[in-house]
Design a protein that fits this description.
The chain is an alpha+beta fold. It folds into 2 domains: about 280 residues, Rhopdopsin 7-helix transmembrane proteins (Up-down Bundle); about 160 residues, Reverse transcriptase/Diguanylate cyclase domain (Alpha-Beta Plaits), CATH 3.30.70.270. It is built from 20 helices and 8 strands. The strands form 2 sheets. Strands 2-3-1-6-7-8 form a 6-stranded mixed β-sheet. A two-stranded antiparallel sheet has the order 4-5. A hairpin with a 2-residue loop joins strand 4 and strand 5. Helix 6 packs parallel to helix 15 and helix 11 runs antiparallel to helix 12. The radius of gyration is 55 Å and the shape is rod-shaped. The chain starts with a helix and ends in a 9-residue tail after the last strand.
Length: about 500
């Protein structure tokens, strides 16, 4: 009666044949799948396997069905949720998790007979091949998930070589799963599955030590499944008594493993998000630091360029030989000085001088000596002038002094007299002693309308002094004291 009811209620004959005494060694090797088989069998089937159960252990009617419904419902929910998550995020680890959970669920459906009863038609060929095919796929997907989750190609290359080798073996088994004998195939898969559990646990331990994101949860998931397998193996061998925990260890362990792996995926995504945020913040900080460095360097370069431009402008305003202001600097300064004098109602004087008998120095001693003479003349002019006066070289042997805020025409004449006296002293250039003179013209701002007029008036006065005998000074013709000052003095022989 029990036998008849078992055949009609749950499983077809091919599934029941799995639990005949001649095939008992297959389930001892698989170990991890035995409990679900027991729960799926009806009363007669359970009685046939009673020697494997502890004495006095019974299941309440309908308990197996409820447990299986909860188990497969949880797997279906996890598969659906993570599939949607993969479609939204495109993370490969999530896809491999979905494939692993789906193939593991397929293996459980094959073990319990629910697949034969509801999902695929019963038949001797596929009925015996479904279980090894799904177990092989579950192992393959577990390895793919682990490689992607732990990022072994980049962070753990040695472990990745082992996982890749294991994956190649499983792919070869998958190709032969439709041809090899079922009993031999199940024996090999049982050993290989146990080895994969140990391999993935050790890999997760190493990843935890290397602080791979969410590796601790990954390790806990595989250790939990491994502990469930050990409990069930001890229960089967009779080392542990039969009770709800030991009998349902694999069911509970695999369910918790699937939940933990799903949590591990979420934790990994959060960790990667934090790492990306930290990397972005670090990149932003580095970019800001680089911008600050760049701004500082640009400011330094700008400052250096401004200083160089100022230096160039200064050099452009300087006579390269004597270092005095040149004609351009003189005109700019003279115009400003003339405007200041008009605004302040002060006297502005301009002293222009031309060296007497300078050409014979160049002709007799050469241009090098002439240049040295001009340099010495510039030094004596700066020494004779006031600190506020501008000393400039117009070109050749012509020089100009711009005297602002001078008290009276007499003070300008006194300054010109000092210059004549300074230039009349002999110049010692090497072993030579050279004497020269100068003709000076003086103009005043009150007599002229612009700075150029002031310069032109001093130039005319200088030529009048040179025509009057040289080595003397002459005031502008518009000034009431515009006559030549002093007697012309012939230059000494050189």
């Amino acid at each position: 009666m029990h036998h008849a009811s078992s055949r009609s209620a749950c499983q077809p004959e091919p599934v029941r044949a799995v639990v005949r005494p001649g095939a008992g060694f297959v389930w001892r090797l698989l170990g991890l799948l035995l409990l679900l088989t027991l729960l799926a069998l009806p009363a007669g089937g359970q009685a046939a396997l009673a020697p494997l159960l502890a004495e006095g252990h019974t299941f309440a009617p309908g308990t197996a069905t409820v447990l299986l419904a909860l188990y497969f419902g949880m797997l279906l929910g996890l598969i659906g949720y993570n599939l949607l998550l993969y479609l939204a995020l495109g993370e490969r680890s999530i896809l491999f998790y979905v494939l692993y959970a789906a193939s593991f669920a397929g293996a459980m459906l094959g073990v319990t007979g629910l697949g034969n009863q509801y999902l695929w038609p019963a038949g001797e060929a596929w009925d015996s091949r479904a279980l090894p095919v799904f177990i092989t796929l579950a192992n393959i997907c577990a390895l793919l998930f682990s490689r992607s989750f732990l990022d072994t190609p980049r962070q753990m290359p040695r472990w990745d070589h082992l996982l890749t080798l294991d994956l190649a073996i499983l792919l070869a088994i998958a190709l032969g799963s439709l041809l090899l004998p079922v009993e031999a195939l199940l024996q090999g898969l049982a050993l290989l599955s146990a080895g994969n559990l140990l391999l993935l646990s050790l890999c997760g331990l190493d990843a935890t030590l290397q602080r791979v994101p969410a590796a601790r949860i990954f390790l806990a998931a595989w250790l939990l499944l491994q502990c469930a397998a050990v409990l069930l193996a001890l229960r089967i061998t009779g080392l542990l008594p039969a009770n709800p925990l030991t009998s349902n260890a694999l069911l509970l362990g695999s369910a918790l493993q699937m939940l933990l792996l799903s949590f591990a995926l979420a934790a990994r995504l959060n960790a990667l998000k934090r790492e990306r945020s930290a990397a972005q913040a670090q990149s932003l900080q580095a970019l800001q630091e680089q911008e600050q460095i760049l701004e500082r360097r640009v400011a330094e370069r700008t400052e250096a360029l401004a200083a160089a431009n100022a230096r160039l402008r200064e050099l452009a305003m300087r006579d390269p030989l004597t270092g005095l202001a040149n004609r351009m600097a003189l005109r700019q300064h003279l115009e400003l000085a003339w405007q200041r004098a008009r605004r302040r109602n002060e006297l502005l004087a301009l002293i222009m001088l031309d060296l007497d008998e300078f050409k014979p120095v160049n002709d007799c001693h050469g241009h090098e000596v002439g240049d040295q003479l001009l340099i010495e003349v510039a030094r004596r002019l700066q020494a004779s002038a006031r600190a506020t006066d501008l000393v400039a070289r117009l070109g050749g042997d012509e020089f100009v002094l711009v005297c602002e805020s001078i008290g009276s025409p007499q003070q300008a004449q006194a300054l010109a007299a000092r210059i004549l006296d300074a230039l009349s002293q002999p110049f010692r250039l090497g072993e030579q002693s050279i004497r020269i003179g100068a003709s000076i013209g003086i103009s005043f701002g009150e007599d002229c309308g612009t700075g150029n007029d002031l310069l032109r008036e001093a130039d005319q006065a200088m030529y009048r002094a040179k025509a009057a005998g040289r080595n003397c000074m002459h005031l502008g013709r518009q000034h009431p004291e515009g006559q030549a000052q002093g007697e012309p003095t012939p230059p000494d022989e050189l």
